[in-house]
Amino acid sequence: MSVIEFHIWPEDNPVGEGNKLGVITDEDVVEGEGGPAIWYEPALHGLGGEAGFSISRHSALATATLVREDNFVRVKVPEISAGYLPFAWYMKTGEFHLIDSDEAGGENVTISGPGLLHKLATGSLYHSSTVSDQPARGSADKDGLWWWTDEPYGAILTRLIEEGRHSPYPDPAEVGSPLEFFSITFDRVNDSDGNPWPNIDSDFQLDIGTDLQTGMDRLRESGNLYVIGDASDVDDLIINCFQTYGENKTGAFGAGTVRFEKAVNIASELVRAEEAGLRINKLLLQDSDGSYSTETLPGFSAGDVERWGFWNAGQTNDDALLNSIGLNVLRAAQTSVEALAFEQVPGKVPTEGLYLPGLHYNVGDSVTLHTGTDPEDYDDATQIVVAYKVSIREGSTDDTNVRAQRSLRIEPQLNYYSPRYGSSNIGTGPMSIIWWTAGVSGIEAPAIRAIRGLQTPQAMTTTSVSMSP
Predict the structure, then answer these.
(1) Is 459 a residue whose pLDDT tops 80?
(2) Using CA atoms in the order 123, 127, 133, 136, what is the torsion angle rounded to 10 degrees?
(3) Is 90 exceeded by the pLDDT of residue 206?
(4) Euclidean distance between CA atoms 47 and 54, whole angstroms
């Protein structure tokens, strides 16, 4: 019996069981170079995660139809759910030319790709509307821009989806449009939970040619928007937009809680990725009019040493949105300095700390981490699950059954702050942050490239703390 199953559809018809091309499972793959044979990794931010597999180019399943760039992949893990998981992905990276080919190359081919929300990046805002009942580029046409004024978040988000479908929602999408097979659970008035969207009283703007993913990222800078994809329905691809996301599952071991504890269910070293950048407490923002405003970290007192940063919020001149963006950037600068990763002991007995992601917890959930009571430990610390990786363990400590050697390997990734926008693995974006220390002359701030989420990889160090039980 297979453990992880990848069910594959063509990009141009990714719905309906009858359109499925085939299935690749952990029984069909081979160990990849420097990575697992088959894996998937849902993530809270960015494109929703990534996944991949390695297969022999001589396998009967290694055909140009099944292993093809842009094919769409749903995931099944029978131990977690009898149906498809919400996470899905697209084949985008790999030596596709070696499939069904006599060309010289390696014996194995590794294929990987981004999550469901990748499709948003394939649509863009044209120089004119593609939606029949919305002739203007937003509220009105302005040179070089898509421009909205006095509109709720939902009006902008819905319009982005409609432009990706070339059709007003929920009318049928234009055949061949980037978001032809997508539906949404929010509208212009309410989010996917049915909560009213906040209003942007002034302006929000995007350049002509902006891709739909970037458009949503610019709204996510405020810190109160989560964009979540769901492919669990074989007949639909769903985009959800929430203002809050995730459940509180903190606490002691119990039926409804999730707790990771040293010597109980942490099966490896706990790896800390620490950022060496400054923790700013003052922020200068530039808005779409070229005007400037400042935000101050709550708790800053007169006499404290100022550490300034700059953020280009060129998408809006709305005071409330600028305030939200500024405070979110400041909070992220304080607490997104350490990401945690480890391997957990898998299982289905939550009262004993044995969990399966997707069954007992999901990305966005708050969980408890306990590694001890020393100053460097995490003592019943609340953490947010920002991602988790599921793959196949090739060797198990239980050698009584060959099948047991193909058990799930689960690696949660935690962070005690969720900046809620962007991802360090999507590449650079339109935002930039510049750091400096006020009042200190002759000291040059570190160069920081523009990356969503205030990540600064060139200033990061990785340390390992032994947490083996």
Answers:
(1) no
(2) 130
(3) yes
(4) 22
- If phi over 0 gives left and psi between -120 and 50 gives alpha, with beta otherwise, what is residue 22? left
CA 229 to chain centre: 10
Condensed to tens digits (0 to 9), the pLDDT of residues 47-77 reads 899 999 999 988 999 999 999 999 999 999 9
All residues at 6 or more sequence positions from 258 whose CB lies less than 8 Å from its CB, including other chains: 249, 250, 350, 355, 360, 361, 365, 367, 368
Q: What is the DSSP letter of 75?
A: E
* Residue 64, H or E segment: none
Tokens of 80: 């977690």
- What is the Cα–Cα distance from 251 to 82, expressed in whole angstroms? 29
Give 217's contacts (C-beta < 8 A, 6+ positions apart): 421, 422, 429, 452
Q: Where are the domains of the chain?
A: 5-116, 123-242, 246-277+337-469
Place of tokens 């479908």: 165
Model confidence, pTM: 0.84
Strand (E) or helix (H) holding 169: none
CB 336, CB 270: distance < 8 Å: no
Structure tokens that stand for 275 in this block: 């950022």
Q: Give CA–CA dist 323/308, Å, rounded.
A: 16
Q: Are the beta carbons of 420 and 226 closer than 8 angstroms? A: yes
Residue 374 in contact with residue 390, Cβ under 8 Å? no
10 Å CB burial of residue 396 (0-12, 13-18, 19+) is middle
The verdict on whether omega for the bond into residue 178 sits within 30 degrees of 0, i.e. cis, is no
- Report residue 445's pLDDT band, with 50, 70 and 90 as the boundaries: very low
Element (H, E) at 329: helix 319-335
Paired residues of 52 in beta bridges = 39, 112
Reading the block at residue 292, the tokens are 């400037």
Contact at 8 Å (CB) between 295 and 285? yes
